[in-house]
Amino acid sequence: MQAVHHDVIVIGGGLAGLRAAVELADSGINSAVVSRVHPLRSHSVAAEGGINAALGNAEESASDSPEIHAYDTVKGSDYLADQDAVEILVREGIDRVYEMEHWGTPFSRTDDGRIAQRAFGGGTYHRTCYSADKTGHALLTTLYERSIKEGVVVYEEHLVVRLVLKNGRTAGVVALDLLRGKLVGIGARALVFAGGGFGRTYRHTTNAHINTGLGTAVPYWAGVPLKDMEFVQFHPTSLPGTSILITEGVRGEGGILRNASGERFMSRYVKMQPPDLAPRDIVTRSMMTEIEEGRGFNGPWGPYLNLDVTHLPKRIIEERLGGIRELSQSFADIDPERKPIPVIPAQHYSMGGISTDNNGATPVPGVFAAGESACVSVHGANRLGGNSLLETLVFGRRAGISAASYVKKNDIPFDDALVEQEVSAFGDYVQGLFSREGGKKIFDLESELQAIMEEGVGIFRNRDGLSNALERLKDLRKRVWNTGVSVHALRYNLEFVRAMDLRAMTDLAIAGTKGALLRNESRGAHFRRDFRERNDEEWMKHTVATFTPEGPLISYDPVRVTKFEPTRRVY
Amino acid sequence: MMEKGKVHFRIFRFDPDNDKRYHYDEYDVETLPGEVVLSALLDIHKKVDPTLSFKYSCRMAVCGSCGMVINGQQRLACRTQLSSLNGSEVVVEPLSSMPVVKDLVVDMGKFFANMKNIQPYLIRHSADPDKEVLQSPDEWRRIDRLVDCISCGVCTTACPVFWTNHSYLGPAALVKAYRFLSDSRDEGYNEHMEQVALDNGALTCKDAYQCTVSCPKSINPQEAIEGLRAMMLRKRTWEKIHCQSAEQAITTTS
User: Which of A170, A414, B13, B50 could bridge across to A5 with cysteines, CB 3.0–4.6 Å?
Assistant: First the structure.
């Protein structure tokens, strides 16, 4: 078999991965993207509301600045973000947004032709640049177009299943070519992991079916540590039943959250105006409190609240919220111009991920990461809406630059024989899976996992719930790793894919649950009913999880504070 | 209207590793009100038949993965409500005329290759300003609908001209060309037009309107193709390109 290798392999073809790949192609590095789906199918495509940058284009935001954006981000993170990283995010973010505009992103416009900006949760000013309510789609399409121009090579529909190391350094990956049903080895001197989040560990998530975290688990299994896995964002507004995302941009454009009595309840929880635009962790907890105290609606899919835009001018809904209108009509049979949209919080984003420095580097030589699968950390304990798209571009590019300079400095010879050996070892592993029971069992275990996470590691947490969840997960893990696969061919074998996904989701869930159980405080999205306050004296630190088959080893890293001393977080 | 409760599915099956030819498998699926074709397929895969292969991801009509033929019409499985389908059964088949990889999974290679032929990226010859290239809201509105394309392949594989001629760029690639040619920031008229004005470009369309009927994002590719033809006429692109190639032909032969 002809050995394939590249200096750098990027795993994931979403915004972070493609931005890294464009940077690598631009600097003449022999590189390629390996993605389980065509790049345009990546979950970045589903981002709706926008991307933050202190351009000061909106009338309301003329006095905005990167410093204020940094402050909002740090406060939003409940002071867990690394402030030097946040400064990079807000400063370089401006260049990245203009660059995407130059590459063709169809941003909505102000009357004088500049990039339009809207209000978003936790932002002092109108700072969120948008392309109607389909900003992720607009950015991903543009970046894919740019990748065609730059001649980026893509291995489409290849599922990366193993990281190959030689003497502790990157040597390549093993992947399953889904269309041909063959395991392939790809040698590489450096890898950039950008496989997105792991929302599917929860039953109710806005995430796509592919967001299982396999691209995070593969380096984790190989010894790359994870950071802050206990911080999981629950988005306030998703459609009941399907958990399809209804963007924060709806509230940014003037949408109001109402309970069953029609009351704008958010004004009871925060003083800021408009109260509906508090950060996501706060809005989500307020909504769940309304429901727990009996002020929600009951529907066929369980309790919900209303998101009301019926008072907005028709033109705003048509021009800026057309996607939401389409989703509400197609998936909830509601025309938001006439009736409020039913909404309920759902898992949305993983603040934690592969632990990286400000250049995307991990402690393992040659392994880099960016985007939602990484944790720098710029989002800390709670991400502000509009900052994730920004992170993908800023740190995707940085990871690309770092990987390029790493391979220029480290001219390690490719070891095709080793990669082939790993392919054959994985082939044996697959044969082992074929000899054990799979089928429906895989999906039953997946449902069990999702139920454990939702019950024990959700919006409100406590010691009993978390320790019970951890025990159940440990027991589940044994059964998960003992399942096999009943379909014995690899060509587009979805059962095999889901069996791998399930292993990834289980181990990431355990890492997050253990971190959550140990963290005896409430900070951002991690809310403990038994420790309701933030505790900076003991917990101003990042949780780091290192994989062992017996369970994650937990250690802690300091938070880097530059300009903003932690104070009480009040909105 | 489908009867709520139980729905009968006939699904196209083909496994190139084991089958000499395709066949259909039948499944009865318990469904809930408001259920879509994709969730029924997921149910079949999880509970009844793990061998079934199909593509899916976002389940909200934006990733473009789950294009397939449902009761004879090219659609997205994730946004096709079972209650919207007529007849006593749901027949699910792969996107028309594309090479079948397995079951409902097709190889979209040619579809994306055609798109690459129109130089699908913003082309500018002027230097970029420090900030954004200005574009008025009216100029933005000209591309607003066109940029909604999710590259699902529904329009192109619904086109009868494409069925018999995969070299025809097809509606999706032509929409992409029209998107750039309509963008006030773009300066690449000749580059985007190069393939559009030749055989297998905009003039190869036979006005079957299937693209416009089937587009899940209501883009109206037919209108875009008419727009391209109008541009070509206005700028006399067709004559220029064909006269040029005639001249080249004369020079080469003489």
Answer: A414
Q: pLDDT (tens digit, 9 = 90+) per residue, B129-159? A: 999 999 999 999 999 999 999 999 999 999 9
The answer for residues whose C-beta is within 8 angstroms of residue A503's C-beta and 6 or more apart is A217, A480, A481
A280 in active site: yes
Answer yes or no: do B50 and A209 touch at CB < 8 A.
no
pLDDT, tens digit, 9 for 90 and up, residues A66-110: 999 999 999 999 999 999 999 999 999 999 999 999 999 999 999
CB < 8 Å from B in window 467-496 of A: 486-487, 489, 491-495
CATH number of domain containing A534? 1.20.58.100
Distance CA A56, CA A133 (A): 20
Which of B63, B122, B132 has the CB atom closest to A114's CB atom? B132
Tell me which residue of A89, A97, A87, A90 sits closest to A129, measured CA to CA.
A97
Report whether pLDDT(B4) > 60.
Answer: no
Q: Is B103 in CB contact (< 8 Å) with chain A? A: yes
Please check whether residues A194 and A62 belong to one and the same domain.
Answer: yes
**What are the tens digits of pLDDT across the range B215-224?**
999 999 999 9
Decide: A264 and A276 in contact? Cβ < 8 Å. Answer: yes
Domain B6-106 has CATH 3.10.20.30: yes
Chain A residues 110-129 with a CB less than 8 Å from chain B: 110-115
Residue A568 resides in a domain:
no
The one catalytic residue among A19, A189, A258, A280? A280
To the nearest whole Å, the CA of B44 is away from the closest chain A CA by 10
Contact between B31 and B9 under an 8 Å Cβ cutoff? The reply is: no
A248 domain-assigned: yes
Amino acid letter for position B106? V
Are the beta carbons of A181 and B50 separated by less than 8 Å?
no
Are A341 and A360 part of one and the same domain? no
Cross-chain residue pair A104–B185, CB shorter than 8 Å = yes
In B13-32, the residues whose Cβ lies within 8 Å of chain A are 15-18
Query: In 10 A of CB A229, how many CB atoms?
Result: 30
Cβ A553 vs Cβ A518: under 8 Å: no
Whether A1 contacts chain B with CB within 8 A: no
Which tens digits make up the pLDDT trace of A311-330? Answer: 999 999 999 999 999 999 99
Burial A174-208 (b: 16+ CB within 10 A, else e): bbbbbbebebbbbbbbbbbbbbbbbbbbbbbbbbb
If asked whether residues A132 and A255 sit together in one domain, one would say no
List where CATH 1.10.1060.10 sits in chain B.
Answer: 109-253
- A425 occurs within a structural domain: no
What local confidence, expressed as pLDDT, does residue A3 receive? 72
Sheet of A117-118, strands arranged across:
A51-52, A128-129, A117-118
Q: Name chain B contacts of A443, Cβ cutoff 8 Å.
A: 46-47
Asked if residue A69 and residue A18 are part of one domain, the reply reads yes
Instruction: Give per-10-residue mean pLDDT for chain A (571 aa).
Output: 86 98 97 98 97 94 96 98 98 98 98 97 96 97 98 98 97 98 97 98 98 98 98 98 96 97 98 96 98 97 97 94 94 95 98 98 98 98 98 98 97 95 97 93 96 98 98 97 95 97 98 98 98 98 96 98 97 96
In a domain, A21, yes or no: yes
Kindly give the interhelix angle for A135-149 and A83-102, rounded to the nearest 10 degrees.
70
- Structurally, chain A folds into a number of domains equal to 3
Strand ranges inside A309-415, DSSP E: 341-350, 353-355, 367-369, 374-375
Q: How far apart are CA B46 and CA A502, in angstroms?
A: 13
* Partner-chain contact B16 A149, CB within 8 Å: no
Q: Which domain holds residue A456?
A: 436-549
Of B58, B133, B144, the CB nearest to A208: B58
Q: Does domain B109-253 have CATH number 3.90.180.10?
A: no
